[in-house]
Write a structure and sequence with these properties.
Length: 175
């Protein structure tokens, strides 16, 4: 009989936020388990595959309180899978107003990731910073953190992938 594996941290979701938190923690030699409800099947980019990832009512497609459609990707890589990994720099001043300095994380990621022109928009916001989570991204439940597009204080009309990477890197350094 084998002993059950133990982990220092369990990360739920493999999108930009979850993946970057897991990476930072693993770099610090913590034992990290990443849970992902979606498939790791290779992306083909077909309409059928994208619909299966992002158009499942109650799982990946939701109506927001302002009647806008919120779509999340149920796949390895999270919503960045359906946004084809588009990214835009985070609005540093907006986060600074909440006591969060993403500048160092952004500089580090710019040195590491290739960047180019960015299309499309994404609107987030169901557990915004200052409402559902604090400036460390912790919820009201001890040791439960959220690092996805829902924490962004307000939409600014650009894809949030790079912002989530910055938030994940910062969260990984705090944990």
């Amino acid at each position: 009989m084998h002993p059950s594996p133990t982990y220092d941290v369990i990360v739920v979701g493999s999108g930009p936020g979850g993946a970057s938190v897991a990476r930072e923690l693993a770099r610090r030699q913590l034992r990290v388990l990443v849970l992902e409800q979606g498939s790791a099947a290779p992306l083909e980019g077909t309409l059928t595959q994208m619909a299966g990832i992002a158009a499942v009512p109650g799982k990946s497609a939701f109506l927001h309180r302002d009647a806008s459609l919120l779509v999340s990707g149920i796949a390895a890589g999270g919503t960045s899978t359906i946004n084809f990994a588009t990214a835009a720099p985070p609005p540093l001043a907006m986060f600074a107003a909440h006591g969060i300095d993403l500048g160092p994380a952004l500089e580090s990621l710019r040195a590491e990731l290739p960047m180019g022109p960015l299309p499309d928009t994404l609107i987030g916001g169901s557990v915004r910073i200052g409402e559902g989570v604090d400036s460390t991204l912790q919820t009201g439940i001890a040791n439960l953190y959220v690092c996805d597009a829902s924490v962004i204080p307000q939409p600014w009309g650009l894809p949030p992938t790079l912002t989530l990477l910055c938030l994940g890197k910062r969260l990984g350094q705090f944990l």
